[in-house]
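Forgive a beginner's question, but would it be possible to get a protein, spelled out as residues, together with the matching structure tokens, please?
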Amino acid sequence: MRISLLEFDYHAEVLRNSLRILSGDEFEICVFTKASIWKKVDWQDEDQKVTLLKDGDNLQSFLHRHLNSINESELILINTAASNFKTWSEVNFTAPSLLRIHNGNANFNTLSNSYRPIWSPFFICKDFSHFLRKIVFKRDDYFQKRFVKKIDHFAFPNDLMRDFAVEKFQLEAKRSWALPFSFWEKKLAQKKPDPQKIQISIIGKIDQRNRDYNQVVKACLLIGPILEALNIELELCLLGKAQGSYANTIIKAFKSISTDYFKVKYYPNFVPQIEFETKIQNTDFLIIPTRIDTRFTIYKEWYGSTKISGSVNDVIHYHRFALIEGKYPVPSNINQAFSPYHGPQDLADQIVQQIQSRAYAKLDFPKILADYQIENVRQQYLSSFKEICL
């Protein structure tokens, strides 16, 4: 099955994952992407035919120049469409088209229903600039909706998000597919529990727009005396860049409650990959303090419903149990890898419970995450693509 795989925005990691999933003998992949994105993908396999848009070149001219080749495929998979909507809306795809949905409201909801102002000087100025540049002059909202109407099928990260979109945005179920871009390939060794030490990690940049670290600070303050009573040292590892006023405030708060039994590890700059992998291997379990309400440009999005959290993908990839914000809707087929918490006291209680029981170390991740084993994901893509192309 010949697939044209298109990516001209920024999702290099998703493009890499898509290539890995589609690397079986069943697929012939033709990649169309930017040179800068392809460099980040760092793909070593030469089986794919790759056509690159040089940085600074015109996307409209590029697409029209290669349109015949793209349309010769049995399916066109658009990995991301987050800009150049006028260009996208004018391209005449004749092969079936499948668009990956990263932000449901931005793609399907009206601007009046999904824009909620944030009353701060920073966001007011930012929103005004966006409205002026993108909505008034480029008419992005109009052309984006026009482009989406031309798409034949839509791909969502999981069943839960697909079902939400079908109900919320009145999409046709037969045109909506659950096609994850997360997977695992081999069973990962779990860290052997240390009776005197434990490491908990939070993955991602310290950013108040999509994570609530204040609840974690309060929970860690509550467990301080318990750690001392149990004679257990806990290291909280913040695996993401800690820059900016909010990050500085959070680091200061964690430092203020540090003791011989509770310490925080953080990184002022980008975490080197070797260091990141080492810390993940030494992690007992994760905390995912996701804020449900978030934004994509000026559109309000909801983590777990219209937008997936990257930390959920980390659980799948690294086989680590996670305590997750209780309002995040976890798909039922992987919910054993998560435990929802509701507020700082509940988070503190669950951290202590995991420390005492070591229940996280007894989980059978290959069984719990079986649907995300790469061969199963590949078969899911293959069967879905066959149905689309019938």
